[in-house]
Amino acid sequence: MHVFLETERLVLRPFTEADADGLLTLDSDPEVMRFINGGEPTTLEAVRARVLPRLLHDHPCTGTRGFWAAEERATGTFLGWFEFRPLDDQDPTVVELGYRLNRASWGKGYATEGSLALVRKGFTDLGTTRVTANTMAVNSRSRRAMEKSGLVFLRNFTGDWPDAIPGSEHGEVEYDLTRAQWEQRHTVGQ
Questions:
Q1: What is the pLDDT of residues 130-178, one digit of tens each?
Q2: Which one, of 126, 140, 134, 122, lies nearest residue 181 by Cα?
Q3: SS3 category, 26
Q4: CATH classification at residue 113
């Protein structure tokens, strides 16, 4: 198994077709999907036809995938995934950070741990100059993980929701972090 990134408690690796069942379990939990689609479960057919192809996409500008299966390092348990993908397939400088973890792993700091490691890798190895992340304004857990990962609130905005879900009336929020901000924080602390 190729490992993209390891932290103290996590292994991030490329997805494979064999991850379909884990993704189905993850995307079938109404609480996990609450701020994605209002809690509707994803079918196995949708995982195979839409979800996996997106997660298996290689980005030419970085030579890497943009989505990484997250496993607990000690047990190999599938926890979910992290996103760290270029917004433009031809430009590695601006990337979107995201995560979707199973409910059993919530509240343990995994989102922050994985995000911090990805941000560091982006700024030191991948040519990233800006990391951006967004979520629904009412998703306080995800917002807190973004803040703990060093991202700073940038703006509120209204997304184009084809089907409104509870909380979407409050809009979305965007956070970001530039390489210059990250470097300043890390040189001050040394």
A1: 999 999 999 999 999 999 999 999 999 987 777 788 888 899 999 999 9
A2: 122
A3: helix
A4: 3.40.630.30
Residue range of the domain that includes 79 = 5-188
Which tokens go with 118?
Answer: 């990805």
Q: Global pTM?
A: 0.94
The residues near 33 (Cβ < 8 Å, ≥ 6 apart) are 27, 39, 40, 41, 42
Distance of alpha carbon 32 from the chain centroid: 13
82 near 115, Cβ under 8 Å?
A: yes
pLDDT tier for residue 188 given thresholds of 50, 70 and 90: low
Domain count, the chain: 1
Residues 82-99: tens digit of each pLDDT = 999 999 988 999 999 999
Cβ–Cβ < 8 Å for 9, 110: yes
* Sheet (strand 172-178) strand order: 5-6, 10-14, 67-72, 78-88, 91-101, 130-136, 172-178, 152-157
What pLDDT score does 189 carry? 54
Cα–Cα dist 167/169, whole Å:
5
C-alpha to C-alpha distance for 134 and 147, rounded to whole angstroms: 11
In single-letter form, the type of residue at position 29 comes to D
Query: Strand ranges (DSSP E) for 7-126?
Result: 10-14, 58-59, 64-65, 67-72, 78-88, 91-101
- Single-letter amino acid code for the residue at 38: G
